[in-house]
Design goal:
Subunit structure (chains A, B): Homodimer.
CATH topology of the largest domain in chain A: Aspartate Aminotransferase, domain 2
CATH superfamily of the largest domain in chain A: Type I PLP-dependent aspartate aminotransferase-like (Major domain)
Number of helices of chain A: 18
Cofactor (chains A, B): pyridoxal 5'-phosphate
Distance between the termini of chain A: 67 Å
Protein name (chains A, B): Glutamate pyruvate transaminase
Oligomer: homodimer
Shape of chain A: globular
Strand content of chain A: 5-15%
Radius of gyration of chain A: 24 Å
Largest sheet of chain A: 7 strands, mixed
Low-confidence stretches of chain A: none
Keywords (chains A, B): Aminotransferase, Pyridoxal phosphate, Transferase
Helix content of chain A: 40-55%
GO biological process, one term (chains A, B): L-alanine catabolic process
Mean pLDDT of chain A: 95
């Protein structure tokens, strides 16, 4: 008897969507996978490796690194998950402050509860609170109808790239180095990444000349450039844009007709310079110069509950504000949101607390703001310690950090390391990071995953790991690798 | 002075991704939007409309319709959100049963807490529990490494269509009628929907002859058909496949080399026939006939916490199991998951409880299973009541419901209604649904959003609304519309 069958397309990867194959996402790539294997090995046989723990400095995941969640957020979420606690007033009042109970009631009444789908754009009450937060932050109006609540910041990026890339010759200007979600999404939607380079020597600053050079170069190659991404404060660079720089950038966007995507998820992670939003500068320009066509500049501003002092990555909450978007395009953004049905409602509730924290006089006010301050100071301390450790290392040069959760030092590898890597078909910084992981348990990422100039090498590391003990291992491990290849 | 500016692509919708424009998602379309407007109007001016409440029978959103969340789930989630409760043992033991406390501890220890990113494929403990659940359900092995935890079922569908559609002539066989997430996603990724029709007269059954006809017709038109979707139990049809039907379908898939996507989110919503999974039948065929190439059939099985008796839609939890997928393709699925970073951790925890409910002898066992039984019986009762109301209506014919949360009756509209709709540029069933909404506040959806044969008309309604009062308004409102056009 002959068995009748036909092989399906999975048999032949080349028949699958090659955009997926082209996408690279270093943050969750081979180093992260190997770190998990080593962690499992440590659990099984604790003595089998030359270190006792894995330090995940590869991804901005604060709670995994021991950062404590903010009490008020978790109290409200616990009550929303289990509203029977609210009804049990006598016991509940011992465990929960009255403002947490009131907030939970308010959120539950506004929705069908945390287990019901919300509207696709997000819970209206939360969107009103986001708009008020933006108004207070910037001093300019914000419209709740222009707010979309999102599943982290990731969904916002995906939706915008999906809408903007219609043909293989459509492109978006991306900073180099950049957070690889952007290059991965561009690859996935089949668009062209047009790189503009940040200037490392001046703390990874953005220059309009470089933006224009990149725009002209892309255009000359036949790329239709539709948007430009800024990550401010910077991932992986830790840089921070001032008001003048943003004004210049918006001028570039206006002259060239490119949409601005401002990834501002680290807006609360700033250390010396104040954070200035793109929305504020655009609003000011529109107000001050009503005849200068600033209303022709479309802006997508992105924020998240995963970063800042909250660090609630696993809850997948965020929002985007869309400014100067014509109705026909707005409808398509709404449709994309609706096909994702709705963001997690718990994440939406956390957005509400992010933008409307306990007020002065509320029972939770002092604790909430003390916790925010403690986390902020702790992160800054870790940042300084890591920066000082990196600066003490041979062959390493690190810019002053100003924000975000990362340092992105340059490494000047010995020639032998570069040759060894090339012989293995690996990037030199990949080889370095893998050797560091295998010898110390510290997982950092190669600059090649974030983009860098040819023949330059960097590493990206978070400063979320606590204590100084691991830094000793880091410095020793680094020096050992360097000595091996000197 | 000349103001220098250039308009960006938002100015001209035709320059945006036309796949987004082509996507249609009726479940969240104009009727849902209008229902929200009317709800707001009722809140503002309660007497301004001929009804006192909006009945959302347009979307399977159980908690919004008053279904109560399962206590054990919410207890575990509350403890995971606010672990300080666990430490406060004396009070906590009064409020939470010991098995809820133990489960919360277990989940927290396995992860970095509910606020940390998990691995992109999902928390390993939860994946092991899912695999054990599948083994017990089917009597065949399941591998935790073949499980992906997902953001609802939606992410699973999006990832698979993204990977499978590489060219505009690639297609997927979709049932008609279908849940419009599928046609919307196909439009979004630029693939061809190849329709196969369910047979309404035999309770919306699937026939292999019809599948083959659709496959051959699609192929003849130059479409390369890569996969076939089954929604079982059916949305919007409420139908249910038996073991023999699934075996025949898998034979069709094997002969034609198409990947099977089995959307089984309603597997716990069955009323007379038992649920049989595609995975079980495929495993049995592979075991019984080791030489018959059943291992060449690739299967993607999808489940969710949004449906069943949990109804936790807003928490966005789900999983997919991938069977007989070669390593190279598996890696790309993993990469797509990693670009989404991770599903909401709270949703993953709920998946854990879905697949590992309290055991006999555990303190929460009796309540959990009583609640499951109550919800199940309540839904069945509502289903019967709605079916009986529909059957009493003029011009309506409704199949016997067997599962899911929907009824999908056919309506034989008077000629005048059809002509009026066409004159307005609307589908007749759209006009009917809009008139019903405006006159009764009941929001149901036109069959045209789900697909139907030419010159046939249907409506889709959930049976989640409680009580019989609304059914009287429904019958009266229906009859009034029909009399108007008779």
């Amino acid at each position: 008897m002959t068995v009748v069958y036909k092989l399906n397309v999975f048999k032949d990867p080349e028949q699958l969507n090659q955009n997926v194959f082209a996408a690279q996402y270093a943050v969750r790539g081979p180093l992260a996978v190997r770190a998990e294997e080593l962690r499992a090995q440590l659990k099984e046989k604790p003595d089998s490796l030359p270190f006792t723990e894995i330090i995940n400095a590869n991804i901005g995941n604060p709670h995994q690194m021991g950062q404590i969640p903010l009490t008020f957020i978790r109290q409200v979420l616990a009550l929303c998950q289990y509203p029977a606690l609210i009804e049990n007033a006598e016991i509940t009042q011992k465990l929960f402050p009255s403002d947490a109970i009131a907030r939970a009631k308010e959120l539950l009444e506004e929705t069908g509860g945390i287990g019901a789908y919300s509207s696709s754009q997000g819970v209206p009450l939360v969107r009103r609170d986001v708009a008020r937060f933006i108004e207070e932050r910037d001093g300019f109006p914000s419209d709740p109808n222009h707010i979309f609540l999102t599943t982290g910041a990731t969904q916002a990026v995906r939706m915008m790239i999906n809408l903007l890339i219609a043909r293989p010759y459509h492109g978006i200007l991306l900073p180099i180095p950049q957070y690889p979600l952007y290059t991965a999404s561009m690859a996935l939607y089949g668009g062209r990444t047009v790189p503009y380079y940040l200037n490392e020597e001046t703390n990874w600053s953005v220059s309009v000349e470089e933006l224009q050079r990149a725009y002209d170069a892309g255009t000359a190659e036949g790329t239709e450039i539709r948007a430009v991404v800024f990550i401010n404060p910077g991932n992986p660079t830790g840089s921070c844009l001032n008001e003048k720089a943003i004004e210049d950038i918006l001028g570039f966007a206006k002259r060239n007709g490119v949409i601005v995507i401002a990834d501002e998820v680290y807006q609360a992670n700033v250390y010396d310079l104040p954070f200035v939003s793109f929305k504020k500068v655009l609003s000011r320009l529109q107000t001050e110069n009503p005849n200068d066509a600033w209303d022709k500049v479309s802006l997508i501003s992105i924020h998240s509950v995963s970063k800042g002092q909250l660090g609630e990555c696993g809850q997948r909450g965020g929002y985007m504000e869309v400014t100067n978007i014509p109705e026909a395009a707005f409808k398509q953004i709404y449709k994309l949101a609706s096909i994702d049905v709705c963001p997690p409602v718990a994440g939406q509730f956390i957005v509400d607390i992010l933008v409307r924290p306990p007020k002065l006089g509320d029972p939770s006010h002092d604790l909430y703001h003390k916790q925010i301050k403690d986390v902020h100071e702790q992160l800054f301390k870790q940042c300084r310690q890591l920066h000082s450790a990196l600066s003490s290392m041979k062959y390493v040069k690190c810019q002053e950090p100003r924000g975000a959760m990362y340092l992105h030092p340059r490494i000047f590898f010995p020639k032998k390391l570069i040759e060894t890597a090339k012989a293995q078909g690996a990037e030199p910084d990949e080889l370095y990071c893998m050797e560091l992981l295998e010898s110390t348990g510290i997982c950092i990422l190669p600059g090649s995953g974030f983009g860098q100039k040819e023949n330059e090498f960097h590493i990206r590391t978070t400063f979320l790991a606590q204590g100084e003990e691991y830094l000793k291992h880091y410095v020793a491990g680094h020096n050992k690798i360097m000595e091996k290849y000197e």
